Amino acid sequence: MDTTTRLGMDLWDFGDLVLKSRVFDAIRDGTARYPIYRSLRFAAREDVLGLFDRIATQPGWRAQRLRSAELLIDAEGLFMTAHGGAKPEYCSCGFSIWADSVERAEAALARISALVADTRMNEAMFSIDWHFITSKGQLESAEIEELADDRLLDSAYPEIPGGVDHFVRRYLASHESVLVVQGPPGTGKTRLIRAILGAMSRQRGRQARALYTGDTKSLESDEIFVKFITGWEDAFVVEDADHLLKPRAEGNEHLHRFLTIADGVVRSQGRKIVFSTNLPNVGDLDDALIRPGRCFARLNCRELTPAEAGRVVMELAPDDAAVQAHAQAAIAAHPRRTLSLATVYSLVARAAEPMPAA
User: Global pTM?
Assistant: First the structure.
């Protein structure tokens, strides 16, 4: 591959380009350069820039900084790519490691783990593998770890009989793979999906992985579906899936791909497919999608009545009478007859703010 071709490639492909170039040379020369592969993902309560500075300056590692949180690391018998992302309270990092021996790969893993021993997070987490289409029409992805700390209140989902935890446990234990979550913005759909992924992590005793997209164009080819079928993801989450939920008789050309993966390999492995839509009434869904044995539930998240919103307030601030009173007054004065869950949370947060000094 010539220099012109190399320089014309996108920056995020550079590590892959270097690796493939070396593998090509090894095959040509009849050698095995990197027969061992390992990967490492974690979250740490520290600044990602400082962490990558420490990693980049480790003795014996020749590091190249592609971006502030992107590294290529080269060493004797070792090649690594690393990327990180920042959250307000923590950072998440991913490492891919190729080595000429098990010992060298394991030594690299141990060295990175030692660098974050004091800040690495041990709480239940899940991983989002977010897929999107670039300006050049290529399917790309970015991974990030999320804390499984969403607190779901039964009062926030009065449409779920038996409570949220019971609903999530039944879904994860069921043979059905599909869940459709409908409702207007702010009614707790994303919070519910996060709770399902967090419950997966706790149930499996490891970090659950979800392939995620909200990009219509990324679903127009088989690539993302093949990745899900052949990969290790526990769930496929599609948000804003209005166009995917229409019947095939109305021209929906993409649903058949989901119908194919919803059974067979996906079903036998207990993997889940979750659709969400902001439309409370998306219309008739394709019978094949929601048939028994494939679809666990079609859940309609809705806005809350003032009485229901009041019960949410009591759960959010059970020991603070002042916050309860202020939030209840705000609910009573609200101009609309129903309130979104997001609005209730906002009203409680405002009621909890310190009063300005006189």
Answer: 0.79
Specify the 3-state DSSP secondary structure of 181. strand
Could you give the angle at which helices 306-316 and 341-352 cross, rounded to 10 degrees?
Answer: 50
Question: Looking at 84-88, 150-154, 219-223, 253-257, which range is the least confident one?
Answer: 253-257
- H or E, element range at 174: none
* Each residue's pLDDT tens digit, 307-343: 999 999 999 999 999 999 999 999 999 999 999 999 9
181 forms beta bridges with: 276, 299
Residue in the structure block whose two tokens are 């990180």: 84
Q: Identify the three-state secondary structure at position 31.
A: coil
Which residues are CB-neighbours of 88 under 8 A, at least 6 positions away?
none
Higher pLDDT among residues 113 and 265, named by residue = 113
Would you state the structure tokens that stand for residue 298, as one six-digit string?
Answer: 């079609």
Those residues whose C-beta lies under 8 Å from the C-beta of residue 73, and which sit 6 or more positions away, are 55, 56, 61, 62, 63, 64, 79, 80, 81, 82
User: Which uninterrupted H or E stretch holds 337?
Assistant: none
CA distances from 74 to 16, 29, 203, 291 (A): 13, 20, 38, 52
**211/225 Cα distance (integer angstroms):** 10
Phi then psi dihedrals of residue 165, to 5 deg: -60, -45
Instruction: Please give the Cα distance from 43 to 164 (Å, whole number).
Output: 27
DSSP labels for 161-172?
Answer: TT-HHHHHHHHH
Q: Could you read off the pLDDT of 147-184 as tens digits, one per residue? A: 888 889 999 999 998 999 999 999 999 989 999 999 99
Regarding beta strands 70-75 and 78-86, do their DSSP bridges make them parallel or antiparallel, or are they unpaired?
Answer: antiparallel
Under a CB-based contact definition with an 8 Å cutoff, are residues 345 and 186 in contact?
Answer: no
DSSP letters of 213-264? E--GGGGSSSHHHHHHHHS--SEEEESS-GGGSS-GGGT--SHHHHHHHHST
Report how far apart, in Å, the C-alpha atoms of 183 and of each of 35, 157, 188 are: 49, 12, 9
